[in-house]
Amino acid sequence: MFNTFDAVLPIPSVIQKHDGVMPVSELKTFHVPEELQIFSDEIMRTAAFFGLRILPSPDPDADLVLKLNSGLGAEAWFMRIDPSSILIEGGGKAGLFYALAAFSQMLITALIKGPAGAVLNCGTACDKPRFGWRGLMLDSARHFQSKKTVKAVIRLMAHFRLNTFHWHLTDGQGWRIASDLVPKLSNLAALSPGQYTPDDLREVAEFAGRHNIRIIPEIDIPGHSRGLLAAYPQYACDPAVPGKEFCLGNPETKEFLKKIFAELLSIFPDNPIIHLGGDEAETTHWENCPRCKAAMQAGGFRNMRELENSFMVDMTHFIVEQGRTPMLWGTCSGQTYPADTIIQSWLDIREPLRVAPNGNKVVYSVHNSFYFDYPANLSEPFETWMFELSERGIYMADPYVIWEDRLKDTILGPEACLWTETVPEWRVMQKLLPRLAAYSECAWSPAEKKDWHGFLRRKELLEAAGYHDFLKENIHMR
Ligand code: ACM
Ligand code: ZN
Fold first, then answer.
1. Average pLDDT of the residues in 45-51
2. Are 188 and 134 in contact, with CB atoms under 8 Å apart?
3. Could you report the per-residue pLDDT of 380-395, keeping only the tens digit for each?
4. Which of 241, 246, 393, 421 has the fewest CB atoms found within 10 Å of its own CB?
5. What is the pTM of this model?
6. Mind listing the pLDDT tens digit for each residue in 117-145?
7. How many percent of the chain have pLDDT more than 90?
8. Is residue 329 lining ligand 1, measured as CB closer than 6 Å?
9. Three-state DSSP string of the chain
10. 219 alpha carbon to ligand 2 midpoint, in Å?
């Protein structure tokens, strides 16, 4: 027989198994302190899914007791299962949420044959995260996702103890922020229609906050802007052939972009980090543009990459002046950014080594480990830029690669990216669900606890018990 502590995924830091069991049928009451009532709803939802009757109780000696424990870190949690009682503690709300997710995994495996004879093994689990940044990026620009899908992604993230939702809101094929500043973009949607109103964005941010997840909103400049420039060609180098890069030599470009970012900041007043893209701009339009050439000469730059770098540094200063932290995709072109800019490495595993001496913090998203649009096997259609991305490949990835001693103060943590050029809304869960378990173990669990075969046993146990159906039901909020 399996031990129900072996159902917890991602694997906790420390588990101590004790003799004895607590019969699930003994679990009749739970106690949640006043200020933690949202957890009452979570317990009732889980109990209802399994057909269990567990009722809230004012008695602090109920069968299941939830508590905050200020001795633990905010995301850390502790659980003790005795023959007639269960104690769940979190350092903060995040820790409690994660403990309940672990508890639901233990319950589902205990209940694999139904409630008759179902037991939870006795013991303790004590857990805390390896990385403070455990991210997932969703590209809502190429294909749009409804608020319902975005919220389901956020709940799924919370279940797997991820805490950072990077939201890629604009790209060449879609501008998903409904704004009076760029009203002509409301119909821009090469692949799928849809925009979020500022109220939609605020609603999602509030929902994410309740799930202990911060949002990093992204407007991608100075490239990836074909759709915007088709509608507003005055900001392109050549209005007759606008292309996908903003004109860096036109002083109105920066004024326009500052207004766009100021609006984004006002929609997300509580979000400390703002992503400005910065990836994959091509220099051809700039090289043929009299205004860009003049700006390059006036600034004393040797080439258009240097002009681009100075333009983007100015934009990061603007974000800093507004009291936020800027974030950019790594350039992979030898440019550096002020130390207060977070760099997201995506193409080059060595980039963190290059920017570490400059003081930049790094989020690790290197594509061949963490780009979730890549095919899981080659029966899926794929594009020239993709690699095969197996679950094992994700599981093996480690943000430090072989340089932990040099990078442990630099790398904030991993971030998986779901780009959606080839992923319509209805495939978002199909791309995420089979991978998040493996990814969560990279992001959360201690490196020395990683063990592929042990992971497979835990995952197969959960899946055999009906875990995917539980998750699909649990992540949709009515
Ligand atoms: C990227 O994949 N262009 C960041
Ligand atoms: Zn230009």
1. 93
2. no
3. 888 999 999 999 999 9
4. 241
5. 0.97
6. 999 999 999 999 999 999 999 999 999 99
7. 92
8. yes
9. CCCHHHHCCCCCCEEEEEEEEEEHHHCCEEECCHHHHHHHHHHHHHHHHHCCCCEECCCCCCCEEEEECCCCCCCCEEEEEECCEEEEEECCHHHHHHHHHHHHHHHHHHCCCCCCCCEEEEEEEEECCCCCCCEEEEECCCCCCCHHHHHHHHHHHHHCCCCEEEEECEECCEECECCCCCHHHCCCECCCCCCECHHHHHHHHHHHHHCCCEEEEEEEECCCCHHHHHHCHHHECCCCCCCCCECCCCHHHHHHHHHHHHHHHHHCCCCCEEEEECCCCCCHHHHCCHHHHHHHHHHCCCCHHHHHHHHHHHHHHHHHHCCCEEEEECCCCCCCCCCCCEEEECCCCCHHHHHHHHCCCEEECCHHHHECCCCCCCCCCCCCCCCCCCHHHHHHCCCCCCCHHHHCCCEEEEEEEECCCCCCHHHHHHHHHHHHHHHHHHHHCCHHHCCHHHHHHHHHHHHHCCHHHHHHHHHCCC
10. 20
Question: Looking up tokens 């199909």, which residue turns up?
Answer: 430
Tens digits of residue pLDDT in 436-449: 999 999 999 999 99
Hey, how many other C-beta atoms are within 10 angstroms of the C-beta on 380? 15
For the CA of 224, the closest atom of ligand 1 is 3
For residue 177, the CA-to-ligand 2 centroid distance in Å is 25
Ligand 2 centroid to residue 245 C-alpha, Å: 9
Ligand nearest to the CA of 222: 2
Cα separation, 198 vs 263, whole angstroms: 9
Instruction: Please choose, from the candidates 408, 341, 397, 410, the residue with its C-alpha nearest in 3D space to the C-alpha of residue 367.
Output: 397
CA angle 145, 148, 51 (to 5 degrees): 140
Share above pLDDT 70 across residues of the chain, in percent, rounded to a whole number: 99
Q: Is the CB of 374 under 6 A from ligand 1?
A: no
Q: Which of 17-31, 62-76, 380-394, 438-452 has the lowest mean pLDDT?
A: 380-394
* Residues present in the chain in total: 478
- The chain-wide mean pLDDT, for the chain, equals 95
Which ligand lies nearest the alpha carbon of 295? Answer: 2
**419 Cα nearest atom in ligand 1:** 2
* Ligand 1 atom 2: residue of nearest CA: 346
Residues with CB under 5 A from ligand 2 (ion): 237, 247, 249, 289, 291-292
Ligand closest to Cα of 287 equals 2
